[in-house]
Amino acid sequence: MTNPKLEQGLAIRKAVLGAAHVERSLAAADDFNKPIQELVTTYCWGEVWGNEDLPRQTRSLLNIAMLTALNRSHELKVHVQGALRNGVSKTEIQAVLMQTAIYCGVPAALESFRVASEAIKTYTE
Question: Where does the sequence pass through the membrane (predicted)?
Fold first, then answer.
């Protein structure tokens, strides 16, 4: 039985994060963590990112802000590169991170600037 939301989520996840990154994540999944990979792909990418009420660029900018607030550096790096892939400019990423300094705190913003700078330097399409 096929799951259309899983398939849609996989396509969106690959489009935003890059096929190589997604394939590595899925290949690294084992019996223990495979269910979370399927959940994330189905619900995060298929249901939420698959909803067309917000453009992908807006979703990327929201994720950058939220991941800064949550201090989730690994995911932030992935989503900064996804934002670039979605057509978000470096200036827009910078503006969001500047705003996080006010609402999330300067230490969180400084860490996110560090992570984003590295993500931008290592970004490949």
Answer: none
